[in-house]
Each structure stands twice: as C-alpha cells, then as structure tokens.
Amino acid sequence: MSQTVLAEQAITLHKRPAPPTGTERWSVDHIEALLNLPFNDLLWQAQQVHRQHFDANEVELATLLSVKTGGCPEDCGYCPQSVHYDTGVKAEKLMESGAVRQAAQAAKAAGATRFCMGAAWRAPKDRDIDAVAELVRTVKDVGLEACVTLGMLADGQAERLKHAGLDYYNHNLDCAPDFYGDIISTRDYQDRLDTLDRVRGAGVKVCSGGIVGMGESRRQRAALIAQLANLPEVPESVPINHLVKVEGTPLAAQPDLDPFEFVRMIAAARITMPAARVRLSAGRQQMGEAVQALCFLAGANSIFYGEKLLTTGNPDVGADRVLFERLGIHGRASVPGMDERL
Predict the structure, then answer these.
(1) Is 207 designated active site?
(2) Distance of CA 327 to the CA centre of its chain
(3) Cβ neighbours for 16, distance < 8 A, ≥ 6 positions apart
(4) pTM here?
(5) pLDDT on residue 212
(6) What angle do CA 326, 328, 332 make, to 5 degrees?
(7) DSSP one-letter code for 243
(8) 295 catalytic, yes or no?
C-alpha cells in the first residue's frame, strides 16, 4: 500500500467509530502516514480533532517537584539521576510533608491545578508508599490534583495510593518497543506495561508518554504513539518529552532533533488520543517561543509550569504568563469539584 493511500486513510480514520476494546485502533503504518503528511495538513487535522474535545485556547498548568532526587539504580540513557552516570546530581532523602505543602501552595498561587511529585526509585518499598501517601494527602489538602511518578509498582501499592487520594500516576513508556533496549537495560518494556495495568486496576488515572530525540526513527516514534493509543484505555495525560541532553549521560552528544519532528509528534498524539491532555513536557526551555506556539497549535494543552522539571531547567512562571498573553491562551481555571470542597 502506498504512503499516499495510507495518508488519505489516516486523515479520515479518526472520524470512524472506535472498534470494540481489545482491537487495534491505530496501526504503526497509519500513524507513520500521519507523521509523513505535509506539515500544514497534519496541523490542520490536529486542530480539528483538538477543537472537538477541548477549548483550543485553554492549557492545563501542572507543577512537577522532585521529592526524592538522585540515586536511581536504573540505567536509562537520558537520565541524570541514574547512579550509573556522573552528572553532578546527588542522592537526597524523601522530602518532608511541610516542604511539599509549601511548594504545593506556591504552585497553586501561580495558577497550577495539578501537582506532580517524582521520586528516583526503580520500585518503591512498602514503607516508601506509606511516606508518599502522606505527601499525596498533603497536596490534596492544598486543593490540587495529585500525581506521582515512583517507578514500578507492586501488587497492592497503587490501591494504597488511591486510598490516599492520588488522582494520576505517571509511568512513561519512553519509546518504541524495538528501540527500548538501546536506551535501558535494567528493566523490560513489559515491566512498564504491567505497572500501567496495576494503576488502572486500582482506579487511578494514567499519565504516560515518551521521549523523542534519542536517536529513534520516525517510524519508531509512530510505534510509540501506537503503543499508547492502543492501550486498553487511553491515558488521560500524555506527556511528550524532548530529550534534554545532560553532560555525563550516554545521550549527551545526541544530534539535535528537527523541531518540526517534535511538533509532528504532538499532532499525532492529539489525533490518535483525542480526549487526552497532551502535555508539552521536558525540553520546553530549549524550544523557544515559536516552536512552543506550534505545539499548542498542534494540540498540546498541558504544560509543566515553574522553574525546574525534576533536575533540568524549565521556563519560569513569568515567561509563561507573557507567552500565554501574547498567544491569547489561558490556564485551566480550576480542578472540578475541588473549589467546592475547600
């Protein structure tokens, strides 16, 4: 089948009724055809899908705090928190609830509606879950949605976090299955899928996406989107991260990705996962305002907001506000049901 025919099919595929759960909704060929469309055609389609499901000028503001930095035993080739690489990141203990409360209050005052906490673990121990559950309760008490990313979860751990009030669990697939071994050797792709199953089984919403710019092909980027779009339930949040090259990691010398390739990924995520929040995530600082604006046009409607994104830089609140004003974009007003509770 020619690329032209596949592209024409891709343009109309999202209008068809969704097949029953358990069948493949989006093939890698279809998604690659989307990525191969002329740039204007791809963005036009993404805009149509976006406006069917969201206010085109509303963006969710989320803040990410590293509550336990460094010392991770995994060997993810992009990560400065791995013990395998000398990046200057020092291992720290889990933050206390008082410090997390202050950070959450500041995030809320700045307009954030979701507060995400990351801990550099391969897999938390049961005592770690107890400590994180206390942090989740703290964030909920401030009046924000709570999200955590802690690594792989064992049976029963997601239920305990749900009981504490957790709204979202972040666990990225990172890349296509056939590229995964080039980036990580200390866990399998199935490990990530198993954790997502445990999160879903506990009734916690899923935040899962990946990283682009690690040396993968366009088809492998299509395969990542296919993995996410064909999960039994599509993630409610889909962070699309641009590789942040950190000195000391294996990917520090990776050639720069064409910025239009990143925008294409945002558009493909929007088209294939229409009701998800597509988050313009790591790497925003290096994109510049024009590329960020194209990402919003392509369907991104969530950002991490604040000075740092775990251990790498992020545009500050003031710069984001200025950009939003220039683009006519506004933040998500509130967390549904939360204002009434407080």
Answers:
(1) yes
(2) 23
(3) none
(4) 0.86
(5) 95
(6) 125
(7) P
(8) no
